[in-house]
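Supplementary Text 2. Reproducibility record for the structural model of the 406-residue chain.

All settings were left at their defaults, and a single model was retained for analysis rather than an ensemble. We include the record here because the model underlies the residue-level annotations in Supplementary Table 4.
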Amino acid sequence: MINFKSSFYFLGNMIGQAISLITAIFIIKNISPEQFGRFSVFTSVGSIIGSIATLKFELSIAISSSLTQVYEKFNFSIFVSFIMNLLMVSISLPFLDLGNGENILLLFFFTICVSLTGIMQQVFLYRENHIYNGLLSIILSLFNFLFILYVFKGEALLIKSNVYTNIIAIFVFFVILRFSGFKVTFFSIQKLKVLFKNNIEYPKFILPGSIATILLTYFHPILLSLIFSDKEVGVFSFSLRVLLLPTIVIGAVTSGLLRAKLSKLYFDNNFLQFHIEVVKAIKLLVFAAVFCYIALVLIINNLSLFINISKWKGLETTSLFLLFYCVAQFFYVPLSNIAMVLGENKTLLRYNIIQVIITAITYMFTYILNFSFYHFLILLSIIFSLFACYTCFKFYYMSISKSKIS
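Retained model, structure tokens:
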């Protein structure tokens, strides 16, 4: 799974997230938890819309039998995402307090960027251009840091820097794709129908499960804002942003590489090697989890030695309580690809729906029983740790079963 080419993907994400960590320290020094809380709600809404708008057609790109299919799915995914983003942003406007027309445009551009980033990453994964995926992470993080440091000030700092950074990164990689032979073309209505029909399992089975994952990833700030204060939303969102860095650097990268590798082995009916790759991935995740999370806890607990974080009171305690929730996501995200590649889409859908249900129950109990913020965090971590242990074992068992059959 991990070779010289794919190491660029890891290296790029490591550098990008190292820059993000420096950016986070700058943010905590200059931005209040309330401001970060409002920013988190904005990016949550945009990320949910942008991630759903592709209808998950982009996931079919890495699982293609030919380069011609990749070209067709690439262009088709762009077409679908643009239409869906426009529709979903328009529908959501009456429910959002964006303030002015500029923020509406920023939200639309941000959702488009989220969709296009996901689409291009799948193309690079198929062609094993892992250096481009690594560069994408570096460019996003570096420009975001530079915008925050030198360009934007005040409350507009976070939103504008985030959106403009994504626009620049997307432009750069569209240029790269253009020179590598990709062209954005228009299909006939008949061709669009054929592509939709041939890949209908993605919006039918993968999308519902992905919606669950997307909501679990981005919906917390929105739900928290209904129960707790902007300050608590900000502290929660910042802690989650830092503690999910290993999931972004290693978990998500491993997820993409594992899916691409397992897909090829699946088409070759080489299930013995399929299981070997799964074991390699689990070993990597265990080693990385121990190293990364110990390092992050130490960094967070010692931030006060270097900068004044008095207005971020409770950050250390919040991070500690969220630790087990983040570790659960770290393992679940990549290992769920085993079920996806093996065609166990209904099982994956069931697990993701269960996650949404238990999340909703957690928030409901918190609201009804008037739990404190910290009691909510403890309950969230316990529930998701147990769920991750069970589901990851089931994913591993799927791999064992296939290897025995072959």
